[in-house]
Amino acid sequence: xxxxxxxxxxxxxxxxxxxxxxxxxxxxxxxxxxxxxxxxxxxxxxxxxxxxxxxxxxxxxxxxxxxxxxxxxxxxxxxxxxxxxxxxxxxxxxxxxxxxxxxxxxxxxxxxxxxxxxxxxxxxxxxxxxxxxxxxxxxxxxxxxxxxxxxxxxxxxxxxxxxxxxxxxxxxxxxxxxxxxxxxxxxxxxxxxxxxxxxxxxxx
Amino acid sequence: xxxxxxxxxxxxxxxxxxxxxxxxxxxxxxxxxxxxxxxxxxxxxxxxxxxxxxxxxxxxxxxxxxxxxxxxxxxxxxxxxxxxx
Lengths: 204, 85
What we know:
The structure holds 2 protein chains of 2 kinds. Chain A is of the alpha+beta class. Helices cover 28% and strands 17% of the residues of chain A.
């Protein structure tokens, strides 16, 4: 995740799970709220606990919102402000802070983990148009102004669309850095036995 | 399908890609640039955030140039990035 300021400029490096500085906070969340996180999110925390880590850093006061790289670049292309920062639902499963069945932030988890809700971006659908290319972007890319910019999504989710699993019942098996078996379903659900992601591309 | 193009951007941990598709789904141009990861100390890995945007701009420019398309015919842009981070 990336911390951005009110002008949509990054004030942190892109913090990935390659970096172990949030290990203490990860352990804290797992030990104290692991069952609730799994019940609500379908997966353990991959990045939500990092908000607790950054709260201890000097950059904290400058951070207006935390977002994903896709939203950072799309937002820059569309000239968004920090208040317009967003996340799309495909990233929620690893947040430890969502109610994944509803594709919403989970107030209970946010409160119990002690996360500052004001630092979380609003949730926008992957298919939403968030804005259009600006004059500044036109100068930097050779694109004209006014091209619609889509909210976008996580790469695995985009891969599902590319693989063509667009009808209920379609399945894909991904043997990558992580092994993922995905099915297109109109009836989403999960339990505590299998880590589960959700890619609500067309969910209303 | 009338002449139109889609611009797709993929942000990974090792490289950033950009592809121009035409209205029939055919690839018209693609560009890729490596992402820099900084390792200040053991267990620490920092990816400078700003480069996601600057490399995207360079990739888009290259795709527009090499595809010889009319950029006014680009009808939408979408961006994805790796999950679980």
